[in-house]
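Job type: complex structure
Entries:
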Amino acid sequence: MKLEDFRAKQAESAASEEELHEALEREFHVIGRRLRRTDGLAKSTGAAVYTDDIALPGMLHGKILRSPHPHAKIVSIDVSAALALKGVHAVITGSDMPETFGIIPWARDEYPLCLDKVRYVGDGVAAVAAVDEETACEALDCIEVEYEVLPHFLDPEEALAHPETPIHDPKKPGQNGNISKQVRLEFSYVDALMEQSDAVVEGEYYFEGTNHTAIEPHCAIGYFAPAGKLTVWSTTQVPHYLHRELARVLDLDVARVRVIQPPIGGAFGGKSEPFDLEFCVAKLAMITGRPVKILYTREEVFYAHRGRHPMLMRYKTGAVSDGRIKAVDAKTILDGGGYESFGLVTTYYSGQLITAPYTMESYRFDSTRVYTNKPCCGPKRGHGSVQPRFAIEVQLDKIAERLDIDPIELRRRNILEPGARTINEFRVNSNGFLQCLDAVEDAADWRAKYRKLPYGRGVGVAGSCYISGTNYPIYPNEMPQSAVQLQVDRSGRVAIFCGASEIGQGSDSMLAYIVSEELGVPLDYVRILSADTDLTPVDLGAYSSRVTFMCGNACIDAAQKIRQQVQQAVAEEWLCRPKHVKLAGGWAFNALDTEAKVPISEAFNMAEAKYGALGATGSYNTPKDIHGSYRGGTIGSSPAYSFTAHVAEVDVDSETGFVEVQRIWIAHDCGRALNPILVEGQMEGSAYMGFAEAIMEEHIFKETGLHNAPSLLDYKIPTSLDTPEMHSLIVESIDPEGPYGAKEAGEGPLHPSIPAIANAIYDAVGVRIDRLPFSPPRVWKAIQQRAEVD
Amino acid sequence: MIEAIQLTVNGDTREVGVPSHYTLLETLRYVLGLTGPKQGCDKGDCGACTVLLDGVPTLSCILPLQEAIGHEVTTIEGLADRDAPHPLQDAFDITGGAQCGFCTPGVLLSAAALLTRSENPTREEIRNALSGNLCRCTGYTKIYEAVELAAAALREERASQEEAP
Amino acid sequence: MLRLHPYQYHRPRELGQALQLLSEHAGDVMPIAGGTDLVPNMKHKLFTPAHLVALKGIDTLHGVERRDGEISIGAAETLNAIATHPLIRQLLPALAKASGAIAHPMIRNQATIGGNICLDTRCTYYNQTLFWRKALGYCLKKDGDVCHVVKGGTKCVAAHSADTPPILMALNAEINLASADGYRSLSLDDFFTADGVCNTVRQPHELVTRLRVPVPSPRLSMSYQKLRERKSVDFPLISLALALELDDKQVVESIALVVAALGAKPRRIGGLDKLTVGERVTAEKVEEVAQQAYRQCNPLDNIIVDVEWRRAMVPVYVRRAFREILS
């Protein structure tokens, strides 16, 4: 293609003057349009520089030595032979960084390198820095570690039964050291209301552990400048939290530590806390005076893990004959793996987050997170709520059948009103769940298909709700959760500085769209510099689906300050009212006389002449006190909630047990789609990930504690040929507090995949698969058993 | 052992001093500084390292470097014309075919090879051609749309070139 | 990333040179064609030869031609070339299908049919990194003396995992081997042995040069069936080929059914002549064959998939093979 053709195509996507005049009639001229990303071409030309793409002069390569035992005391480590190896610059062990860290400030239970014991196969015990990776590997082979092997537990119920072999010291004397967290909450009176139910359904559900499997493995580079400043480049999605922990563990002034997050090759929650490699590259850089890089092998990514908690869930649900839910009683055991990670939050979420979209007259949950000698579990897209959502949505399907009510209709009869509080006192503002149900019912032709397709084919429905960020940050403080700084150049160029983590979800682009909307600059006048703690104001990171809501609001805050200055300055020149000065498409023009217009740069110059250098900061903080006053009431409280409904259509081969998901219809209430392409991308990507967990992913272990399949060949994620057709249906409920009404779209759309597929399998072949994944052997056996019974 | 090896990459032929046991990917990324092809899984399971060898999609992370001698290697950096993106790259940008972008270089090269073979590929043919490239972000839908868009753009380009010689 | 050990890479242009190199460096040399199986295995430190002898540059190992009533296939032909070759598609369609179903497009562009025939056997305790295998305590096939699949087992049960041998065996293919000492040729059945450690009789200094398949009779129909978890990338859980010769009254003149991926050696299902030759192919007859196959196939936990299910799938895919042929 010729350059002039490409430029012509780019210009097409910018608004023409006619479109701008039309835009004066519409609400927005950028928001809501199907636009390119700001980083799309960098990614499709190979120009984007990811962490492992960075090479610094004199850079050394690091490797971490990992435990071959699932549970053992470290008796001694002898690194002398490794140090003596030619090309090795430094070797460190746990005693070089004897400070614990953890993402939850009051649950710091990890050392960068294990100090006295190892808790899973893969737990790090030493690290080396050498001239190249091969030498570093050789050096690891020279390190002698003496272990005293301890009994290990791979099953949480087994771990619970053996408090005499605690994986961690008990939090209080006399407690079971294998319990990570226990939460019991009851709202209203479950037992009494269960008695009043006409239909009571009980079920046991098991959600297998899964890994995030971002295509980019973790990577970090540390550099300690002669002036005494540490820089760490990392594939982290939480640069601010990493910044704090690095300083604390390494005993450095936090103002002399810099964390830079380059473009990331996928995260999904797998990079949302500090990891051993980040501390190791920093420490090794400090010791050697050279930059040090560590790149995980794919196997190490499985050991670092922090993926979906396996959950064993026992549910009892009662409803009256018209379908209204009277009582839900849930008992859950979470398999936490070797450490805490976000465990406290996960344990709460496993109960707190299913009280929407449905009303329930009473609710009780009892969740226990248990340590086991396996890689630690943490947040994976839909943190802690995907598993219970599977259970409750299948429970509802069973109730619908028992009461002979259509499953979509059953859900309609239990809808939370917009603006209502959930039974556990979360404030749900905008709520488009009803429209989501309508959308999938219609698009999937549900009424013609449900219980009407021939044997082997079926449809299933499920709904869900998810947070758009959390009202409380991970470390308690009163400061904003998100901030944006803008700086305007005389050329019209606007720079956005924001701590937000672009992980592929489009957060950089989202900020650019907002600035383009508010200040009228073309998209390619906008520069985004994100996630560099030396240059960007704090944003807490890409987790809990907070970025669009919080950074978006902070950006609007900053942009509107500058907009007002520009409008005021231009209005004074044109002798009109500031509100009639419109900024759009590269121009400032008078809404009442569109002949009066100047290029936007000129408008900026007028403002700079009047006010001085143009720049503004904006912040956003979450509402407090919109949660219950009971202990734990804050966990799950969010400024806004998204809603999703799926219908899945499946083809089950009853001869083999293969479940082929033909189509998934995804309706998601994202408040407002700032760019529908990005929202659809999140909906499709989420549904893909949910489908993958439902059908094929299994993060499981052999008796020895060794990971069953630590490679992308053996740990199965769907290829293009495995992935169903997906149809995205955006619903906009326009949230009163979201940026232009927007809410999250990054995690919510994953939840209903799994139960919708489970319910569709039941519609197709009459068997309930209550355990993940719905693999061919499992489905086949269930069909065989049913055939025997019949 | 360091050997001087003659390689042709993205149209440039030159001698490169490199440990003779390196794979093509290690050479491209760590010796030539072409970081477009990515390292995702160490051993050929994910497709992120895909390059073209004489126009044929090949996994560079499991190709012994010396197998590239005498052949033309094309990485993502060599896909575009000098000053304008390839229609596939533009199409990915339009449809949202790249989210995190890590699988993108590999996917684009597999797609580019497909479009060289087939002017109007069906959705099924596209899925087949990309069946060795894992993507974790997009669910593939917008990738297919991008390939179809690019195929249409290329057909149009060809048609207009034929009209005006 | 997983790095390779230092090796010397030889690129002979002539077969003789290659064979010479294999003899010269005996004990520390391996041949390499596509490398799509060997290189990952080397990254796993399962093989660390100081010398690799590249085969793709040797002309005599290429080419697909019909001569002397046989189709002669060069061992260095890529899987993609086999899957798309007009002669193979016309005369050996199930071989084209089998080749085209292996792994995914990039692998098929690099891998060769000779490499597929000689594919190393696989097992969940073997195809792992050095760190993983060391933590395990190694296994019978590599560096250890314990089989983790069959407790107390003294024989390795790693699985044959290639897709092209079943149909080649069902068609009574022969394989040519060359070494510095001379040439030999044997039936593909005799090429494989039931030993998980090394499941072929190829000596380390020998090379597979050509495969020769008798041109099938016009009355012969064939089918290839593959079971795997995903629709791409994965090795087979069952790899099955059926070759059936019927007269104009649908009466069986000859039958061959080979099932692989369950044990170290592809299994030619026995007793089928007695069962079917001279009989018409009815639904009942198909079922008898399917059950015969079931009785003779015993998958183990070498690949971690439910064993009962995998075994139960054998008759299912036998039926599907018949269905493909008869439709």
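Summary: Chain B has two domains: 2-78, 87-160. Residues 96 and 142 of chain B are 6 Å apart (CA to CA).
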